[in-house]
Amino acid sequence: MPRPLEALIHLDALHHNLQRARECAPDASVWAVVKANGYGHGLQRVYEGLRAADGFALLDIAEAKKLRELDWRGPILLLEGVFDARDLEWCSRLGLWHVVHCDEQIDWLAAHKTEWPHRVFLKMNTGMNRLGFKPHAFRNAWARLSALPQVDEVSLMTHFSDADSPRGIAHQMAVFQQHAGDLSGERSLCNSAGTLRYASDPAVRGDWVRPGVMLYGAAPDYPEHDVTHWGLKPAMTLQSKIIGIQHLEAGDTVGYGSRFTADKPMRIGVVACGYADGYPRHAPDGTPVLVDGQRTGLVGRVSMDMMCVDLSHLPEAQMGSPVTLWGIAPHHGDHAAQLSIDEVAHRCGTIGYELMCAVSPRVPVQVLNHPFP
Length: 373
Ligand SMILES: *Cc1c(COP(=O)(O)O)cnc(C)c1O
Fold this sequence. Notes:
- The chain has 373 residues and is of the alpha/beta class.
- It is 28% helix and 24% strand.
- It has 13 helices and 19 strands.
- Helix 1 (11-24) crosses helix 3 and helix 12 (341-347) crosses helix 13 (352-358).
- The relative contact order is 0.14.
- Residues 33, 35, 79, 159, 191-192, 210-213, 220 line the site of pyridoxal-5'-phosphate.
């Protein structure tokens, strides 16, 4: 029998979450953001669940090629644009749309020979200070691009730094409107948090929204809101089994560094999942885990291939009992139990994004077409 750890990808959840994005941004087109191998779910797998999107947004030309090989004929957007002049040949060949965020990218375009003018998304740095033209340089970049024979349509975009938190988006919206309000072209502003929290305002939702993490069933603004609040369904379940049981006396310790000490007799279960699978090594004692669909917590340090959980209050748990690290538990009683990746991540001092992207290649993946369990 193979090691009992596996990741399940829920195609129905991807489809559902895409619909949620559409409901939040009525009339806008939706870029399904599938960078980082579909946020760790596998590009080909998420393509199956998200093919109702209007386009796919990603970073790597290799990933764009893969989508074309899967027969995606619609728009593909390179979110960071091209990394050198030669990438433009691939854009011409594969019909890729690309972000333009700096003067060098305009220079490369001006020198590029192509039969097909490119659709570009000109990016303004409205305060994120990562990629994009400074607001005062934006109009000039727009004029330069618009005049190039290599360029078809120029769309306008920016990226929010605080759409998930109290600072919000007003300061960036003001800058964007001041410097681009009168320029022609389609607009794209919202990531998941922008889509969920602000896209009811037509000026914010623009023509294209760019949801990423919400499509995978994580809440961008946890713990303020969780997936239930936003009506999202987890697209990934990480599940395993109990592969060993230990009985502890008071004073016994668990695992490397003896981080956990029992203060009373306890029964603990050993779970086949460790940091080499992508589970965070720095997960503290008490990090939630479901055994047989019931909540319990981690005890002791996560090791490379295993971790331990408290079974003291779960007398029916035994060798082979199903363990859910995040996602949806197999049926227990009448209702399916869920453990959100956001809650696990929060306990570990990180975000759901990082955990889903970190699931390691050694974890076997099963794609489910139907609701689970
Ligand atoms: C990753 C990314 C997104 C999606 O962000 P989420 O927070 O996952 O929704 C949107 N736009 C750009 C430019 C990105 O790089």
